[in-house]
Fold:
Amino acid sequence: MDQVTIKDVAKYADVSPSTVSRVINDNSCISAETRQLVREAMNKLGYHPNEIARSLVNQKSRSLGLVLSRPADRAMANPFFPDIIRGIASETQAQQFQLVLTAAENYDSERNEALRLLQNGSIAGLIVMAARVDDDLIRRLVESDYPFVLVGRSPNNDGISRVDNDNIRAARRMTELFIDRRYERIALLTGPENYVVSRDREQGYRQALEKAGLEYEEDLVYRSDFTYDSGRRAADRLLAETGESIDGVFAVDDILAMAVMRSARDRGFSIPGDIGVAGFNDAPLASLVEPALTTVEIPIVDMGRKAAEMLLEIIEEGAEPGDEHILPAEIRIRDSL
Amino acid sequence: MDQVTIKDVAKYADVSPSTVSRVINDNSCISAETRQLVREAMNKLGYHPNEIARSLVNQKSRSLGLVLSRPADRAMANPFFPDIIRGIASETQAQQFQLVLTAAENYDSERNEALRLLQNGSIAGLIVMAARVDDDLIRRLVESDYPFVLVGRSPNNDGISRVDNDNIRAARRMTELFIDRRYERIALLTGPENYVVSRDREQGYRQALEKAGLEYEEDLVYRSDFTYDSGRRAADRLLAETGESIDGVFAVDDILAMAVMRSARDRGFSIPGDIGVAGFNDAPLASLVEPALTTVEIPIVDMGRKAAEMLLEIIEEGAEPGDEHILPAEIRIRDSL
DNA sequence: TTGTAGGCGTTATCAT
DNA sequence: ATGATAACGCCTACAA
Structure:
C-alpha cells in the first residue's frame, strides 16, 4: 500500500534502483552528489529498506532464535530467563540482529518450533539453553548442521560451540566453604538427574567432600524439581530423615534453598546456627530473605552476550563451531552459612 | 545451497510449482491424488516453505514485536516480564506467529528499534507495555497507523486497543482492606509519578480513604523508583518521619513492600502487629518472605494472551482498534496485614 | 484441476 | 559512476 520502495526513491531522485541500493549499503563507489540526492529522496519519501526482501535476496535472515529448553512455565520462573535475554539482546542489538523467542507449552513442541524456524529460514541460528542430559534437539541440530550455540553443557560437546559457567568448580568451592567453616555433615538438595546442571553441581559437591576426606553419603543426597513446592517437600523429607545429624544443606538452586530455610525454620532450627544453608544462582530474592542467602552468582548476562557473539561469528564470518567459553562464577557470602 | 524449493518439489512430483503452492496453502481445490503425490515429494525432499519468501509476497511478516517500554534492566527485574511473554507466546504460537523482542539499553533506543522493526516490515504489529504518562512511542504509533496493542493505560486512550487490570479499583480495595481491619493511618509508598501505574494506584488509595471519611494526607505519600534500594531509602525516610503515628504502609509494588518490611523490622516494628504492610503484583518472592506478603495478584499471563489476541485480530482480520479489556485483579491475603 | 507468467523489494552481475 | 537485468522463493491472477 503505502510502502515506499527503492523504485519510488529511484524515480524521485531520477536515478536507477541499483543506485539507490548502493547508497543504502554504501559500499560501492557513488559520487557524493548522487548520494546526497538519494539520501534526500529517501527522507522526503520516508523510505525504509524492506528487511524481508533483503533477507530473501541475501538468503539469510537477521534473526537469532532462543530456545529455553524446558517447559515454558518452569523456564520463566527461573531467574536465568530475564538475564540471558538481556545478554543476548545487547549483542544482537549491537549487530543489528533481532531476537526471536520460541516459547511453547512443552519441550517437545518448543524443540519442533525451533527447528521449524531454522528450516523455514526465519532465523539464522539458535541459542539453546541446554538442560537435559539427553537432548534430542542438540543431536538434530548437529546432524542438520544449523548454526547454534549452547548455553550450558551437553554430554558430548565435540564440535559444539558453547558457553558455560563452571558448575562443578563452583559447587566444589561452595562445599569447601561449608567445610572451612567447620560444617561436618552436609546434605545436598539437588535437581532432577536428567539435567546437566544437577549432575555437575552434585559432582562438585562430591569432589569437595572427597578431597577433604569426608565421606560421600548417598543418604544425604535429596532430589527435587526446580520449584518451590517440590523443593519444600524434599526439604521436609530431608530434615525429617536426617534429623539433627546434619549441620548443613547445600541446595543447587536458590529456590530450593528457600524451601530448605523455610522447612528448617518450621522445625525450630536456627540458620546458620543449627544448620547452614547455601544456594545457587543468586536469584533476586536471595539477598532479600532473612537471613540473606549465601549463594553462587552466575554471570548469566555475560553468558548470554557471549553466546550471541559466538553465534554471530559462525553466521556472519563462517567461523567453525567448537569454541568453548567457561565464565567464572562467584560465591556470594551472606548470612545463611 | 541445500535449500529445497517449491520448484524442486514440483519437478520431483512432476507437477507445476503453483500446484505445490496450492498444496501448501491447501485452499484451492486439488485432486486428492496430486495432493498426495506432492505431499510425498515434500517429505522425500525434506521441503520446508520459506517463510521469508512468503512474507515478501504476502506483504506482511508473521511476527509480533514486544517492547517493554522502560530500560531493559528495570523491565527485566520486573516480575511482569516473564509472565507477559508467556501469555503472548502462547497466543502467537497458537496462531503460527513469532515473537520478536526489542530489548535496548534505554527507552529511547528501544522505542526507535520498535519503530524500525515496524517500518522495515520485520514485524506486523507491536505490543507495548505502557508505562509512562507521556509516551512518545504511543503517539508515533497512532500517527503512523501501525497495528499495536497497549498493555496498561495511556492518558488518552481513544481508538487505542488495550488490555489492563483495574489498578485503581484494586488499590482501592486493598486500602479498604486496611481500613476494614482497623488500620487508621495508612501511608502510601508509590512509584515515579510519570508512570501511569503509580498514578492509578495512588488514586485508588485516595478514593478508599475519602470514601471511608479518612483524610488524605500528602505527608503520608512517599515516592521511589521501582528498585529495592530506592524503595529502601524511601521506606527509611517514611518510617523515620512518620514515626509511630502510622500503622500501615501500602506499597504499590512488592519490591517496595519488601523494602518497607525490612526497614520496619530494623526499627523494631513487628509486622503486622505494629505496622501492616501490603504490596502489589504478587511477585514470586511475596509468598516466600516472612511474614508472607499480602498483595494484589495481576493476571498478567492472561493480559499478555489477550493483548496478542487483540493485536492478531487487527492484523489478520482487519479489526478496528479501540477495544478495551480490563481484567480483574485479585487480592491475595497473607500474613503481613 | 492444473500450468504459465508476472511480481513482491532487494541485491548482484554485467554492461556502459 | 551508473543503469539494465536477472535472480531470491513464493503466490496469484489468468489461461487452458
User: Anything to note?
Assistant: The two ends of chain B are 65 Å apart (CA to CA).
